[in-house]
Amino acid sequence: MPRFAAVKNGFRTTLALISLGSLAVAVLTAEGPPPTLPEMQKEIRAYLTKKAGRAPLGTAVPNKSPWVWCEEQYEAVPKQDPKVLYSLISEHLAIAEARFLRKDNVEERRKGLGMVSEACQCASHRIKDHWLAVKICEAHLMPHMEAADSRHWKYLGRQNLLEVIADVYAQANDPKKFIEVLKLILENAHNRNTADAARSRLAQMLAKQGEFKEAFRLLKEIDENEGVAGAKRLIPVFEKKLQAQKQ
Questions:
Q1: H/E element, 181
Q2: Global pTM value
Q3: Nearest Cα to Cα of residue 204 among 231, 167, 177
Q4: For residue range 132-191, what is the model confidence (pLDDT) as tens digits?
Q5: DSSP annotation of 35
Q6: Quick one: how far is CA 181 from the chain centroid?
Q7: Distance of CA 134 to CAs 57, 96, 117, 156, Å?
């Protein structure tokens, strides 16, 4: 299976589950023939060049923890100066793809994931350019998720990166994609408490979309003794909504 794939269903917008190693990541294809990965990355480069006023220069980057270097650079820029932030994102994505993400060594690719993750978060929270944040996720982060660390406590672990993706979709107000990533977080939860926290978030999002039957089922599965058991107070609320839907 290739690292990235897209599907088309006529000319309708279609939600597709893309297999990335042991993960499935939600990607929403555009109308018409879906763009290829190189086309998506080219679109991002052109957008960033326009926003930054120049193409990336190929700045030298430290080999150790380059994502920390990226974060420090973003934090040093005043929020009222987005042009500089766009320029930094452009630089960091170019470096991540050229120097890290194309390597055979998984630890090197993981460094690239860290750089891309920081770029996503900068676009989403500092610039609040949610279109860009989503595009970076789908063109640069998701296709390389097989390089994520399997250890849940690691900053570049699969769970943490899924949380980054979920947050990007939440900030972009895209409930369908947000829900699909929450499902992945639940599937990849490392213990019962983490799983129940994901169940609670997923149930509440599903309820907002009117899917009370599934929301009700998820809340019923939450352990009574766990820290998120308070979410079960919503069970009678969802049950009433579900009954009202059936009438």
A1: helix 175-187
A2: 0.82
A3: 231
A4: 999 999 999 999 999 999 999 999 999 999 999 999 999 999 999 999 999 999 999 999
A5: P
A6: 7
A7: 24, 17, 11, 19
**Helix-helix angle 158-171:175-187, to 10 degrees:** 160
Tokens of 150: 């399997």
Report residue 79 CA to chain centroid gap: 22
The token duo for 184 is 């992945």
* CB distance 83 to 52 below 8 Å: yes
Please tell me the distance from the alpha carbon of residue 65 to that of residue 196, in angstroms, as a whole number.
32
Burial class of residue 144 (count of CB atoms within 10 Å of its CB; 0-12, 13-18, 19+): buried
Radius of gyration of the chain (CA): 19
Count how many Cα atoms sit within 13 Å of the Cα of residue 150 in the half-sphere of its side chain.
5
* Residue 80 Cα distances to 84, 195, 197, angstroms: 10, 39, 35
- C-beta of residue 90 within 8 angstroms of C-beta of residue 82: no
Q: How far apart are CA 4 and CA 45, in angstroms?
A: 18
Single-letter code of the amino acid located at 114: G
